[in-house]
Design a protein that fits this description.
Layout lengths: L1 E6 L2 H13 L4 E6 L2 H4 L3 E2 L7 H11 L3 E4 L2 H5 L2 H7 L4 E2 L7 H4 L1 H11 L6 E4 L2 H12 L3 E5 L8 E4 L2 H13 L10 E5 L4 E9 L4 E3 L4 E2 L2 E3 L3 E4 L4 E4 L6 H22 L5 E10 L2 E8 L6 H5 L8 H8 L16 E8 L22 E5 L2 E3 L5 E3 L3 E9 L2 H14 L13 H7 L1
Parallel strand pairs: 1-2, 1-4, 2-3, 4-5
Antiparallel strand pairs: 6-9, 7-8, 7-9, 10-11, 10-16, 12-15, 13-14, 15-18, 16-17, 18-22, 19-22, 20-21
Helix pairs in contact: 3-5, 8-9
């Protein structure tokens, strides 16, 4: 079995690790990959957002499956191009990927289908968005860039002035580029957030174990919003009854609405949820594995990841397939980031990476090799450090200590990943 994995981040390193741990006979090719992935698979320099280049490589290598990690290649139509050439690909088409690439369109779809979510309005003019805040929403309120913004396009505003400033920054200053051509003014929801992934053939779903992400840069959920500073699983609030409820009231109706729209979704549907007093509501959907939740979730998996992915990519149904199974204990992932992240990360800093036991897995997210071979920082989020243990407290401590032992100048990491769970467990 030859697999082509597209992407270069920590999520893709975790996917590569999971696929190879499941089946050592897999011949794994990653494009473009990263130094961590290069230690376990063959890497090829490639623009993963170029459908023609991806198809040419897949045909040249005669791959049996293409797994698309990031959202950008999906939005660029890589899966559409692969399917046109009858190459099995795990991921949605560009039209289906709009569940993530168009927050405005997806919000309208959810509201029309009666899927539980916050009320919102979409605006292209700053003056009209501000009027909506002042007259109809008030504060606190959430302002979102509609398009892809690398997980950073959501601004929670606690005052009207903060909301006006966020609207100006998104629509006029275009801090998120064309992702901010339109913005959502959205009702503020209270509760804890939960990330639930589900592999889907477009009709049926196989939900995974839920995780909780930590978006803020600093301990105590302080500081600016980021792409994610850590995650943990399992989450004690996520009971089997809750997952069943989300499946029946959110996942399946969403898939039905997407089929009805003419954009059936196959691949990995990621539901970002808020556990409100009225029940779970959708914060957002993503069209791919989340980062850093994937780095926490996949090391816990004890059943096959490849079998359902391959079935979906080949157009088969998964309704009769067994559900995923998971090891006991807990997994905690701590992200180690560059100084200046998320606004202006400083890169090119030499890294000293110690050795760890198999209970700690260090996934490369923003690393490269200098001309002499020295490992160095090359992005905002540099590593995702996952620890597995028999208890949440032990996993939290091991992840934090491993993150602290990674050496590069100015390294940033949170010391409280899973702090709500720690409070619940006493």
């Amino acid at each position: 079995m030859k697999i082509l994995l597209l992407g270069s981040g920590g999520r893709e390193h975790a996917l590569a690790d999971a696929l190879l741990r499941e089946n050592t006979a897999v011949d794994l090719l990653a494009a473009p990959g990263n130094p961590g992935i290069a230690e376990i698979a063959r890497t090829v320099a490639l623009d993963a957002n170029d459908p023609r280049a991806v198809c040419a490589l897949a045909q040249q290598e005669a791959v049996d499956l293409v797994v698309v990690g990031p959202e950008a290649p999906l939005a660029a139509g890589v899966v559409d191009a692969l399917r046109d050439r009858r190459i099995p690909a795990f991921g949605p088409t560009a039209g289906a990927a709009e569940v993530e690439t168009s927050k405005a369109g997806t919000k309208a779809l959810m509201l029309a289908a009666g899927i539980p979510t916050a009320h919102a309005e979409t605006h292209r003019r700053a003056s009209e968005a501000k009027e909506a805040v002042r007259i109809r929403f008030g504060a606190p309120v959430v302002i979102k860039a509609s398009g892809l913004a690398a997980g950073k396009g959501v601004i929670v505003c606690h005052t009207l002035d903060e909301a006006y400033d966020a609207i100006d920054r998104i629509l006029d200053a275009r801090i998120f580029g064309e992702a901010g051509a339109e913005c959502l003014v959205e009702q503020f929801m209270t509760g804890e957030e939960l990330s639930l992934f589900a592999v889907t053939d477009g009709t049926d779903v196989l939900p995974m174990i839920a995780a909780q992400d930590h978006k803020r840069l600093l301990d105590g959920d302080d500081g600016p919003n980021t792409g994610g500073m850590g995650a943990y699983t399992p989450v004690s609030l996520s009971t089997p009854a809750l997952v069943d409820d989300v499946t029946e009231r959110i996942l399946l109706p969403t898939l039905h609405a997407l089929r009805k729209r003419g954009t059936p979704f196959t691949g990995l549907l990621y539901a970002g949820l808020m556990l409100t007093p009225e029940g779970p509501k959708v914060v957002e959907f993503n069209c791919r594995f989340g980062d850093p939740e994937t780095q926490a979730i996949l090391p816990m998996l004890t059943s096959s990841l490849l079998d359902p992915m391959l079935a979906v990519a080949r157009g088969a149904r998964i309704g009769s397939m067994p559900g995923f199974t998971w090891r006991a204990g807990a997994s905690v992932t701590t992200v180690v980031a560059s100084p200046g992240y998320p606004d202006k990360p400083l890169t090119g800093r030499p890294i000293e990476l110690p050795s760890f036991s198999d209970a700690v897995r260090v996934y490369h997210a923003g690393t490269s090799r200098a001309p002499g071979g020295q490992l160095q920082t090359s992005g905002g989020r540099v590593f995702a450090v996952t620890a597995l243990a028999d208890s949440f407290a032990a996993a939290q401590r091991a992840s934090r200590e491993a993150a602290a032992s990674i050496g590069f100048d100015g390294a940033l990491y949170r010391r409280d990943i899973g702090w709500r769970e720690a409070a619940r467990l006493g």
